[in-house]
Amino acid sequence: MRKALIAALCLLTTATATATGCGAKVESSPDAKSSGAKSPAVTLTNCGREVTYDKVPERVVTNDVGITELMFALGLEDRMAGFAMPDDKGDLDAVPWKDGYDKVKWLSKDQLTKENVLDAHADLVFAGWNYGFREDGGFTPDALKKLGIPSYVLTESCRNGRSGSARGIMPPLEALYTDLTNLGRLFGVEKRAAKLVADFKKRIADVRAKAPEGDARPSVFLYDSGQDTPFTSGRYAAPEQIIAESGGVNVMHDMADSWTTVGWETVVERNPDVIVVCDYGDVSAEQKKKFLLSYAPLRNVSAVKHRRVIALDYADLVESPRNPAAIARLGAYLRTVSGDTAKS
């Protein structure tokens, strides 16, 4: 994963139907293992390329929390052979998909490796660039293809070709909806995916309808980690639209990348009204907040002067089914400060 997770979705899966979005009935997951019928090939567009999958995967291995929970949100635990994820991504007992974590094997508390994948007899690896896939170590879709194992790349992480490993090819919520739709097609749960996307869009629209407008929209800086140089979000990572739909403006919107590093002088110059801290890792959110509020170069930044710092979990801030709940939480916070920021 990168160098350096609530939501309150209603998602109850039964043997014959699934309730998603608090009451909408959708189809159950097909059982290719018991039917004996050969499933038709499915062609999807992933990172701008057409990829054909010869069958419905039955032993999917995922990397990291957001990607894993996309599978859980679609009720696809029975199609998974395991996941890899560090144990610093928050309290998993409180998430709507606790049953998924209970059922699916935790393969590694580090990133996926070829050995993990082969040992799990995986028939699909669902990961992303810097969310498992990496040139260093040779864990790439091409390397897995040589082993006869197909891949699906998280759309938020698709490389955009602008500069080396810069990531992001579409707005982050569009990336989320694209992946849910693609997974719905691949696993034969299109109605389930469509209802989930429709529910997400409605919940986000409800927040946007209450959001401040014009000069009342607070400017927001996303702080992931780092003291010498801060790691933050450009316009292709999930915080961009989490901030925008909540009623704020990402001060790093002009950066055509997803997660990236900037200089503190840029943060000072752009003078954010609010700082959002990404809560994960060995350094707690409280420790990160303490650093920001005591770091001398930031003393005149509006967010620091007025102590407007809010923490969201890691899984709120990467592409995941927790994004709508994160938007609702941040939206409520920004509404409490929008009047003050408009005056300041």
Automatic annotation (TrEMBL):
Fe/B12 periplasmic-binding domain residues: 59-341
Signal sequence coordinates: 1-19
Family annotation (SUPFAM superfamilies): Helical backbone' metal receptor (SSF53807)
InterPro entries documented for this protein: ABC_Transporter_SBP (IPR050902), ABC_transptr_periplasmic_BD (IPR002491)
Pfam families per the UniProt record, alphabetical: Peripla_BP_2
Keyword annotations of the record: Signal
Family affiliation: Belongs to the bacterial solute-binding protein 8 family.
Protein name in the entry: ABC transporter substrate-binding protein
Lineage of origin: Bacteria, Bacillati, Actinomycetota, Actinomycetes, Kitasatosporales
